[in-house]
Amino acid sequence: MKPPIGTSLGFFVTPPHKCGYLPNRDAVTIFVDPRRRPNIATYTLLSQHGFRRSGEHVYRPQCPDCNACIPARIPVAEFTPNRAQRRTLRSNAEVTMVAKPPTYHRDHFELYQRYINARHSGGSMENPDRDSYLEFLTCGWADSIFYEFRLREQLLAVAVVDHLDDGLSAVYTFYDPAEPARSLGRLAVIKQIELARALQLKWLYLGYWIEGCRKMRYKREYAPLEIFRNGQWGRLDAEDSCDAALPDPR
Question: Listing from the earlier edge strand, what are the strands of the sheet with 11-13?
């Protein structure tokens, strides 16, 4: 992978640390040197090679004995919603999506706190404060937008999205845990697909598909889904599984 002309990158690799996705496993992560601020062209190239953004950091799992974290993206021009996805769109027909700047909004933060406490209790982001919230979601060099989903005055969800040269990157979505019937996570993905298509972009980058992680399996429902494996993108087939790539957890 070569950065665009006029751009230089450095990388560093972490020591083994606790895996955030699979229990009883260690992980190794490769980071872009945070002293080298990528531009959008470089960030696009990195996304094409399976990297993700968290705050100011761009990273990719680099575990020597496990390749369970597989980058995934949707070719938005080819996506057609299935029955469940069409039902989600119908049940949220009155919900509006509005772009907001990637700054602190009190109602966003309060929704984020409720979401984290309900869905990720005991995790590293439990009981976040304002600073840690902004450090996790925002970035000074990325082209980021906070997309609000509202039913009239009620804030239902926020999707944090980075705009790339060739697509959108779904950085993080949080939503009202008291509204499970609305399938707000699904709604946010579908609306990002529609937005990418309207902007004449090719891809919605979804992050990592991890078959062994229950919270990551949902990405299978978006077809066609492409995954980055062995240095190239290809379609995820129904029988595809990354379980064979997992090391013995003992």
Answer: 11-13, 29-32, 57-61, 52-54
47 or 121: which leads in pLDDT = 47
Quick one: pLDDT at residue 121? 64
Helix (H, G, I), strand (E, B) or coil at 153: coil
Alpha helices by DSSP H, 24-129? 40-48, 83-91, 106-119
Q: What CATH number is attached to the domain comprising 117?
A: 3.40.630.30
Is the model's pTM score more than 0.70? yes
Three-point CA angle 137, 143, 146, nearest 5°: 50
Total count of domains within the chain = 1
What are the beta bridge partners of residue 23?
Answer: none
Give me the sheet containing 96-100, strands edge to edge.
96-100, 144-151, 154-163, 167-175, 203-209, 70-75, 226-229, 232-235
What is the C-alpha to C-alpha distance for residues 27 and 182, in angstroms, rounded to an integer?
34
**Which range of residues forms the domain containing residue 85?**
74-230
Helix 106-119 to helix 130-137 angle (10° resolution) is 90
Residue 223 burial by CB count (10 A; 0-12/13-18/19+): exposed, middle or buried?
middle
In angstroms, the CA 95 to CA 155 distance is 10
Pairing of strands 203-209, 167-175: parallel
- Cβ atoms of residues 79 and 199 within 8 Å: no
Residue 144 lies in a domain: yes
**pLDDT band at 7; cut points 50, 70, 90:** low
